[in-house]
Design brief:
Largest sheet: 5 strands, mixed, barrel
InterPro entries: Pyrophosphatase, Pyrophosphatase_sf
Strand order of the largest sheet: 1-2-3-5-4
EC number: 3.6.1.1
Distance between the termini: 14 Å
Structural class: mainly beta
CATH architecture: Alpha-Beta Complex
CATH superfamily: Inorganic pyrophosphatase
CATH topology: Inorganic Pyrophosphatase
Shape: globular
GO molecular function, one term: magnesium ion binding
GO cellular component, one term: cytoplasm
Cofactor: Mg(2+)
Number of domains: 1
Order of helices and strands: EEEEEHE
Number of strands: 6
CATH class: Alpha Beta
Radius of gyration: 13 Å
């Protein structure tokens, strides 16, 4: 489902803004994290997304999907969205999502 978003403009709503705490695990979000409204992912929730843009809390944003985080053994892909015209290499993406994603347990998918 998520792959067709690669390279496409995306609107996001953030339910876990930059600096907020995870409601169960307690870690701090080091990126705005939310979802694509009106979508349905295989896990039954809306399609999740990291917004790797401004480092302050936001409620909504628009950008371009530059990659997908595909967790091994999990059917809950996450979009990586940046402001239009911004591209990041895989190392930068991995560093930016390390607060939640465990190295070696996911792949970064691109075109």
């Amino acid at each position: 489902m998520a792959r067709h978003y690669l390279g496409q403009p995306v609107g996001l709503v953030f339910d876990r803004p930059y600096g907020s705490l995870h409601p169960v695990h307690g870690f701090r979000y080091e990126a705005n994290y939310g979802y694509v409204p009106g979508t349905l992912a295989p896990d039954g929730d809306e399609l999740d997304a990291y917004y790797l843009g401004p480092e302050y809390p936001m409620q909504t944003a628009h950008g371009v999907c530059i990659a997908i985080v595909h967790r091994h053994g999990d059917d809950d892909d996450k979009l990586v969205v940046t402001p239009t015209g911004t591209d990041l290499d895989n190392a930068h993406i991995a560093a930016a999502i390390a607060f939640q994603e465990i190295p070696g347990r996911y792949d970064i998918i691109r075109h």
